[in-house]
Request: fold
Amino acid sequence: MIEIEGLVKRFGSYTAVAGLDLRVESGEIFGFLGPNGAGKTTTVKLITGLLKPTAGRVRVAGFDVALQTLQAKRAMGLVPDEPFVYPKLTGTEYLRFVGELYGVPLADMRKRVPELLEMFEFGSWGAELVESYSHGMRQKLVLAGILLHDPEVLVLDEPMVGLDPKSARLVKDIFLKLAGRGRTIFMCTHILGIAEKLCDRIAIMIEGKMAACGTLEELQVQAKKGGLDLEEIFLSLTGGGEYAALLRYL
Ligand SMILES: Nc1ncnc2c1ncn2[C@@H]1O[C@H](COP(=O)(O)OP(=O)(O)OP(=O)(O)O)[C@@H](O)[C@H]1O
Ligand SMILES: [Mg+2]
Reply:
């Protein structure tokens, strides 16, 4: 459902994504991990057509993102790392706006918009301007927005940031339900517990390259350390503890 071949992105002389090859199948929940600055968000922008690659190509739902951009975008829903929502719209207006962009029939929208607002427990907030929303409420509104047109591929950059535990559980259940009916979920996350519990496969990016990819068991083999949990695998691949000497100044 997502096919990435030889993907490279340079910003001037800096290489943010240094030759990425990856396939994500339909029905898969795929976790994209890595330290700050590893190139995760850049990859998300390349997958969703917000950035043009320096080299390589991305296909989503069979469409080349560079050549068949509109068809590819129609098959996707994106939750970016910052939940941008027009501040002068109400929550309800935002969802209707997104629905119209994706051509959701009006009759479906009349049913789905209140349902989604109820599912995310907006109560009477649906009628309030987004500028009065908390960060978590904006995040939930953006999530509700991508559920409206039922995309084949959901691309989410840190979707759990700012969500309270109940909302985070709801979002996990939504992902499992969607994957169960063949939707594909590609998610960047720093929350290793979520990746461990939720993701069928996990990739760990380091400095624009994929350092490891597979199921948790496969990652344990790749890290040459059986029985490790994801945190230990992550730290063994990315290096950890170098700051120990500096802690003595505290
Ligand atoms: N528009 C840009 N111009 C120049 N450099 C950029 C640009 N966008 C990203 N970079 C650089 O590319 C590298 C990868 O950034 P990216 O945002 O993809 O990291 P990330 O893995 O998402 O990190 P984080 O975990 O902090 O979200 C960083 O060093 C960043 O400074
Ligand atoms: Mg990022």
